[in-house]
Amino acid sequence: MIITKTPYRISFFGGGSDYPVWYKKNGGKVLSTTINKHIYITCRFLPDFFSHNYRIVWSKIENVKQIKNIKHPAVKGLLRYLKIKRGLEIHYDGDLPAKSGMGSSSSFSVGLLKAIYHLQNKNINQFDLAKKTILFEQEYMKETVGSQDQIASSIGGFNKIDFNKNGKFKIKKIPNKNLNKLNDNLLLLYSGIQRNAHNIANTYVNKLNSNYEKNILKLMNYVDIGEELIKKNFFDDFGKLMDQAWQEKKSLGSKITNKKIDELYKFAMNNGAIGGKLLGAGGGGFLLVYVPKKKQKKLISKLRKVINIPFKFTHEGSEVIFKQERL
């Protein structure tokens, strides 16, 4: 039995430039971090005496004979992608809801891929784990997804990720002993809206090189500005930059935001926030807002049906936290 622990991520700047349709022509860059909220995957070979060959426990419980009958699309796809022949039991648990802009689908794929590799006594390093997950989601599953989530959840940490036109990527760790001060000024607010990121992305990704080229170039520029602000400990300016980036991101498509999100963002800005952004492709999920710590109590006290999720930046990527050899 194997249990993997894979982090969710927060992306600050550069989102959109990590789609291959963009960076294979122009290059791309993002600034992101992993946080102490995780997806846990438990995986074991299923003993032969069961009447089913595959048991998948998620929001549903599936007991099926053949892979083709599995309803969970990522599990079905990954078992086929890895050419799994033996029966498996897979349990999924997450600290945060799915379809919420935290990179959960890629974190799931990273965690499951790592679990199956280790279950087969095969080692895979962090970089290869990220690359293989990117290939799985983009090439095998044909999903409209970027490439930053797989890298962040595989490798972990606060990073600047550069995407080259040849499809390769480079990771630069952001060294700053004062990052905890930035962390202290951020609130993670759950809007309660779940959405399919692929559907949202499909509304604008294929237009990145034509309609939205100037917007994406601006979003990429914010990555370098944000990195410099962190180096100088200008964290309030970093928060204001988040607002600029969010205004730019909203121009990419009408489905990136909605009335509820706009109202929540405006409410936060009127009660102490100086910047923020909706995480992920848009449409719902988590809103990240920059609120100086001394003003957070006021905002939190006024929030009614919005959940505030405390979190911390982390350094670790996907890892095996339990391994028991088959008897």
Notable characteristics:
327 residues; alpha+beta; Ribosomal Protein S5, domain 2; Alpha-Beta Plaits; 2 domains; 9-stranded mixed beta sheet; 4-stranded antiparallel beta sheet; globular
CATH topology of the largest domain: the name is Ribosomal Protein S5, domain 2
* Helix/strand class: alpha+beta
Give the count of helical stretches. 11
Average pLDDT confidence is: 94
The shape, in one word, is globular
Question: How many domains would you count in the coordinates?
Answer: 2
Biggest sheet overview: 9 strands, mixed
Oligomer: single chain
Fraction of residues in β-strands:
15-25%
> Alpha-carbon distance between the termini?
10 Å
Please describe what this structure looks like.
With 327 residues, the chain is of the alpha+beta class. It folds into two domains: 184 residues, 2-Layer Sandwich (Ribosomal Protein S5, domain 2); 133 residues, 2-Layer Sandwich (Alpha-Beta Plaits). Helix content is 38%, strand content 24%. The protein has eleven helices and 13 strands. The strands form two sheets. Strands 1, 2, 3, 4, 5, 6, 7, 12 and 13 form a nine-stranded mixed β-sheet that branches. A four-stranded antiparallel β-sheet has the order 9-10-8-11. The termini are close together.
